[in-house]
Amino acid sequence: METVAEFVLDPIDVGAAPDVMALFAREGASLTRLARFYLDDRTAAEDLVQEAFIRLSRSASRIRKGGSAAAYLRSIVINLARDHNRRGLVSLRHRPSAVPDSPSAEEDASARAERQAVIDALRTLPRRQRDCVTLRYYLDLSIPDIAETLGLSANTVKTHLQRGLASLAQTLEANR
Question: Quick one: which of 27, 30, 25, 20 has its CA closest to 57?
């Protein structure tokens, strides 16, 4: 599991309120995982999450009463990741170090290839479908949470999920 301790917000530097700090402790790791689906570099993903919290602390007044700061953060992270990739700042692939007692090289290569095939197929989906699928199946968000994060209706989210999963299945089956 990835840690996000490397980029803890300093309340003195960014004016973060204690509730932002608690939100960081609760959501930081999942936001970093979300960013990693868009970026190959863990450090860049962590930087995007840090930037998202900085932006949140600067615009906390824009969150409506009863609104979800977590949904706002997810939206910021997705937009920052898109901007990062749009500018052509695609980072080098993160290569984790070998783990003792790891599976054989063949098993590891096979599993890595399967994961990469899913990520590659995911990246071919249209933007909204990709966003809905990653939020649903990689962050385990509910349909209403996804709708709130992306500013869509629940039915639209369901449609994007259905089409995205069908397209993923078709792409992955074609690549076998």
Answer: 20
pLDDT digits (tens, 9 = 90+) for 99-121: 455 566 777 777 788 888 888 89
48 with 130, same domain: the answer is no
In a domain, 97, yes or no: no
Choose among 117, 82, 118, 112: nearest CA to 98: 112
In a domain, 99, yes or no: no
User: Is 114 within the bounds of a domain?
Assistant: yes
pLDDT interval class at 150 (50, 70, 90): very high
Domain of 143? 104-176
CA distance 53 to 24: 7
Whole-angstrom Cα Rg for the chain: 17
Residue 162 lies in a domain: yes
Tabulate helix, strand, coil % of the chain (nearest 5): 70, 0, 30
CATH number at residue 44: 1.10.1740
Q: Where are the beta strands (DSSP E) in the chain?
A: none
Q: What is the pLDDT of residues 157-168, one digit of tens each?
A: 999 999 999 999
